[in-house]
């Protein structure tokens, strides 16, 4: 049953369909899920079957969490043939077909080329570049770390294994995958191995409803509450540390300004004394200079 956001955080919900009467656990239970932090091997048809959970939208806003039965999924792994490749200013779009009856768009982000450390995310070491509308050079980058990635091997007709994050285009609400890394499957055995692993995971994990005992749910709730308390305490420590630093810097500033004012007054007094001394010296020198002239006149 759909719940509002505040209720979804602390309660367990079930679907209306009796055939799918498995519980949907709140987000604080996800660390115990076998799928939430895993690269879940799925067929493209199954990826399109993933759905968000009504009532959990606020909990997962910006997280792109979708569900297979009641399994939360955010990272997927798929394998198929590159059918098309289109280049746009800010992204490269691949269309992948895995013969499951559906295709999916895999989006590869682009960024302006800058001097970056040499990172390797595939079996190749160079990066694919293109020119942007502003004349700058753009390169393909990964979805999370935004590190350069060479996509030259992702040609039409290549068989590839892809890992990426789930997302939807707002305009069409069609599911697509944002690429994180990939491998070219050069042998049929590698593709068959992927199919077998995908089938085993589907049967052994995804087809079995995710279930937690009340004791585990309560333990996860306590841990999440403790983590929130720790985060709040750490935030207060940071704020207090910043306040003390600003207070210390303020004291140092006032002390420096007070010393500067004192030294400035001393410098002003020294300047006055030097000026007076110079005047007296000039007067004495003028008097001495005038004395010989007077004596010569008397003679």
Automatic annotation (TrEMBL):
InterPro entries associated with the record: NA-bd_OB-fold (IPR012340), Stn1_N (IPR018856)
Region annotation (Disordered) ranges: 116-142
Domain called CST complex subunit Stn1 N-terminal: residue spans: 63-112
Cellular-component GO terms for this entry: chromosome, telomeric region
Low complexity composition bias: residue spans: 119-138
CDD domains with a match to the protein in the record: RPA2_OBF_family
Keyword Transcription appears in the UniProt entry: no
Top-level division of the source organism's lineage: Eukaryota
Compartments (UniProt record): Chromosome, Telomere
Pfam families linked to this entry: Stn1
Keywords: Chromosome, Telomere
Name of this protein: CST complex subunit Stn1 N-terminal domain-containing protein
Organism field: Talaromyces rugulosus (Penicillium rugulosum)
């Amino acid at each position: 049953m759909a719940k509002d956001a505040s209720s979804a955080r602390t309660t367990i919900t079930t679907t209306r369909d009796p055939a799918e009467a498995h519980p949907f656990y709140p987000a604080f239970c996800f660390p115990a899920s076998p799928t939430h932090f895993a690269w879940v091997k799925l067929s493209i048809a199954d990826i399109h079957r993933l759905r968000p959970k009504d009532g959990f939208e606020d909990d997962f806003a910006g997280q792109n969490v979708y569900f297979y039965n009641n399994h939360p999924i955010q990272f997927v792994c798929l394998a198929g043939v590159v059918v098309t490749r289109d280049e746009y200013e800010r992204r490269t779009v691949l269309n992948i077909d895995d013969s499951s009856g559906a295709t999916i768009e895999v989006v590869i982000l682009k960024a302006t080329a800058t001097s970056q450390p040499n990172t390797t995310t595939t079996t190749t070491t160079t990066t694919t570049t293109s020119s942007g509308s502003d004349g700058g050079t753009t390169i393909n980058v990964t979805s999370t770390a935004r590190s350069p990635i060479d996509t030259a091997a992702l040609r039409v007709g290549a068989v590839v294994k892809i890992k990426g994050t789930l997302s939807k285009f707002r305009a069409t609400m069609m599911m697509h995958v944002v690429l994180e890394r990939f491998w070219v499957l050069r042998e049929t055995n590698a593709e068959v191995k992927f199919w077998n692993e995908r089938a085993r995971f589907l049967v052994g994990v995804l087809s079995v409803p995710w279930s937690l005992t009340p004791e585990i749910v309560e333990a996860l709730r306590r841990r999440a509450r403790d983590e929130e308390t720790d985060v709040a305490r750490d935030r207060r420590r940071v704020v207090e540390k910043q306040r003390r630093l600003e207070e210390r810097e303020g004291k140092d500033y006032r002390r420096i300004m007070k010393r500067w004012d004192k030294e400035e007054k001393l410098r002003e007094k020294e300047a006055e004394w030097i000026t007076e001394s110079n005047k007296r010296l000039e007067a004495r020198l003028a008097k001495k200079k005038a004395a010989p002239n007077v004596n010569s006149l008397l003679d």
